[in-house]
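Subject: Sanity check before I submit

Could someone independently write out the structure tokens for this chain? I want to compare against mine line by line before I put it in a report. The sequence has 568 residues.
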Amino acid sequence: MRLILAQYLRTLRERDEFDRLLPDLLLSMGYVPVSKPQTGNRQYGVDMAAVGKHPEDGIRELLCLVIKRGDLGRNEWDSGPQSSRQSLNEVFDVYLKTHVEPQHEPLRKRIVLATTGDLKQDTQINWDSYAKGHSGEVTLDFWGGDKIATLIERFMLSEHVFDATDRSDLRKSLALAGELEYDQKDLHRLFKRVLGVSDQGQLTTKNVSKKDLVKALRVVSLAAQIFSHWAEDEGNLKQALFAVERAMLWSWHRINLEEEKKRKQFYQEFGESFWRCYREIALRYFEKLQPHYYVKDGLSGYCRESAVFSLVIFEQIGVLGSIGLSCILVVPSDEETKRINFENAAVVADALVALLENNPITGSPMLDGNVVDIVLGFILLVFTGRVKAVSDWLAELIKRVDFTMKLKRNFPVCTDSVDDLVELSIQKDEEIRVDLMKISWLLPTLAGWSVVLKRDDLYEMIARNSKTEYPEVCLQLWHPTAQELPSHLYFERAHYRCGESEAPIILPDTAQEYRVQMEALLKSERHNVIATSTAGLAGMPAFDLIANRHFRTPVAPFYWFQFLLLRD
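---
Independent answer below. Compare away.
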């Protein structure tokens, strides 16, 4: 948090930004301002004065702030009328002699040179000599970006770096950070406003400078980390993880709205502000829940009803899949990093296998949309060599889903609505039942993975029964087009805005025949979403799969059809 604050401070202007933050900081520290920065009026070196007790020794003092911007080097120290030394001289020569109120005369005087940057090494001796030369008159302090970041973290809880509207939304979100069902709408509103994007993901402000966009990215990262800190303190790491994911995804979307040639200049900032933060919060989330995965029905304490338990379990499968893939699907800088990343992914994959073994309900998805979580789980397990675990899980899924479809009870509802799921279980209405099982993305996905894993027996079961036992179910897959997907994947449910639906799918009788169809798609440049993935091209292919899970967008078949080639 301190590093993020220090980075953010460096982007602030001296006037109307940095000087607006400092009064709030001093108030939080217990100081009462007696003068504030003013434009146009000569202030004789003092940009702001305040009275209060020093937080360390408790002595009441008059604090005089001299505000500058950026790093303090030799040029900034003594190069003209606006240099730091000249401003400090004016404080001693004029302000302290003519502008101190009589009631403040007995107080200790402390002059603070505050800047958003650092004191450069070539100027350190100048500052030390100046402070020593005036030590008999007043106390001199230097507050650089790191010092101010520390004070903000300690006294302000970091919220006052935002303007009034952003602050209001942040406070609302913090008040609800511990609520399990909070939709984070206030935080999302802040993200979009700061990033300058509309509800549709379009730019609301064009021709934004690099500096302003970097600052916006840091503000969004800071807001997400503040919220995640509150949520974690409330014991709600799920809210923390989802907030950081949303900030990361929307920020990447915003970077992609820049011209392609300009995007790379923001990649380092993105990595430092978001990707590292995501990995850290994902690690804490995993470590908290890891012991539960190795206990029989270890997550059952989070719910009572079996349907709700199924939703919890499949959500965990998706989260584990995306966390594990975030370790392994990154371009490492060296072989040692690659090895460590794989080992971390293997630990997550082992936890997923334990979850499958200890929770039989992992074979009974209640929503057709759980196909997103299932595919992520499959991909992680295949990448880490747990092929037998994938095959066994696939067999259990197909056996149970096929049975519920034939029975026409407890099947995965196609609307992905929990309300519809509840209504179906209570009403037992035939019309509702027909409506909720008319479409399935899960069945053709399981059929495709049966081909990938060379389980012809499982494939033939789905192919046969989809025609004879539940022919009214329309099997379909969504195929995003390579050029359109990057514009939507990182901001919303992409399958609502782009791509093509393959429906109805009539599965051929044999797995070999379906394999031919799958291989035909792999030859289509139009659907090669891997080649056009902006995250993949930037060295973070896992980012696409995180977006799939977060926004509930099905993983493009072109992506997982690739395993046909890996399994040969």
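---
OP: Matches mine. For the report I'm noting this point. Residues 2-160 form a domain with the Restriction Endonuclease fold (CATH 3.40.91).
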